[in-house]
Amino acid sequence: MTMLFVYSVNERYFSIGNYFYFPVMVLLVGSYNLLSSYGRNSWKIFIGDFKIPLTILYVLTSVFVFQKEYKSDVVFSYILLLGMFYVMTLSKLNEIDVKWIMYSFILSGLVLAILLLSQMRLARLDLLRFTVFYSESDFYDVNFLGGYIAIPALLSFYKGWVKKNSCGVILYKIATTIMIIAVLLTGSRGAMLGFLVGVGILLMNRKMILQGLFLAGLFVLLTPLLPDFLYERLFENSYDDGSNSQRIEDWMAGLNAFVKSPLLGNGFDWPEDIIYRELRLKLTAHNTYITFLMHFGIIGIGFLLSIFYPMVVVIVRNKNMRGLLAMLASLLFISIMIEATLSIIFYIPLIVIWILYNYKKNNIYNTVI
């Protein structure tokens, strides 16, 4: 539903600015559900998980007390996204809810993949990569689009190839194949490698050799069908086309701007504005984590880590959560290659992973995930 909603709103980078009313609706409905489920003990919601409200308070303190530079839409976006994350991850869900969340997440990636395959339009004549157009001339960024589709594709792969006791195995395999084709057509090396990182984690088991060979065979069959310009980009001249040197230059600019104010960050401004203000360079960070550093600083990053570090530790240590580890590793890798600090490309998969982790943690032997 989220991706269909975003498709109708039209935002090239899936950023929150043009569809803020969706997280607002989630906040209102989610808050009502939380207050209804907790009843008179609603105050326990904050006590139970106070780290996200404190992170929002840090954002406001940085702006209004420490008087850091800011753009109101950046601050507003962080408040909405963190608030949406808060109410969605605190909701009490049963097995049926979790199943439908997984189905919907996979469907969101599949819908975008089918749209891409049905349109089969190049982004531009000077950008020979396929994407989804939401108007006659406007389209979704190929790296963001490929990066998003890769995560539902990985969950579908897990359900279809790894957990073969799942219902609808054939449907999962078909959906995975369609989404893999779409990712390849975007020409996003980061999305392709991110997907393979997750698959590598899932296949780190002797029992998975056959599935690994099947997937390798699928890639062997699909890659020759790609247009020559995409095949060359992905597999031949992938690393000498200038894009990687430009990305490293962007990263270094972001880091050099960050060290100008490491403790409290450079303020909640757009990354390109921060870099220009600090270094007089017309560049952007082009990296989710470097942008987080510039916005939050070391102290603020401590707040963010306090939210997510416990989940990461549990997922890494628990063999029954290998599927979640694969999705998390893939998302974290892809986020290195794009600047998704205010994009649902980062937050929606993260929310889904958190919901599945929270359910699995309390139902460790349940085979839903």
Describe this structure in words.
The chain is mainly α. Helix content is 69%, strand content 2%. The protein has a two-stranded antiparallel ribbon with strand order 1-2. β1 and β2 form a beta hairpin. The two termini are 21 Å apart. The model has no long low-confidence stretch (mean pLDDT 85).
Compile the SSE list and pairings:
Blueprint: H1 2-9, H2 21-38, H3 43-48, H4 51-64, H5 72-90, H6 95-119, E1 121-124, E2 127-131, H7 142-162, H8 169-186, H9 189-202, H10 209-222, H11 228-236, H12 243-258, H13 271-279, H14 288-317, H15 322-337, H16 344-362
Antiparallel strand pairs: 1-2
Helix pairs in contact: 2-5, 4-5, 4-14, 5-16, 6-7, 6-8, 6-16, 7-8, 7-9, 7-15, 9-15, 12-13, 12-14, 14-15, 15-16
The stretches of 5 or more residues where confidence is low (pLDDT under 50) are none
The helix-strand sequence is HHHHHHEEHHHHHHHHHH
Main sheet: strand order: 1-2
Strand element count: 2
Distance between the termini: 21 Å
Count of discrete alpha- or pi-helical segments spanning 4 or more residues = 16
Global outline: globular
Give the averaged pLDDT, no decimals. Answer: 85
Largest sheet: 2 strands, antiparallel
Strand % is under 5%
- Give me the secondary-structure category: mainly alpha
Q: Estimate percent helicity.
A: 55-70%
Rg, please? 21 Å
Task: Give a brief outline of the structure.
This protein is mostly helical and 369 residues long.
Considering the chains and any ligands shown, give keywords for the structure.
369 residues, mainly alpha, two-stranded antiparallel sheet, globular
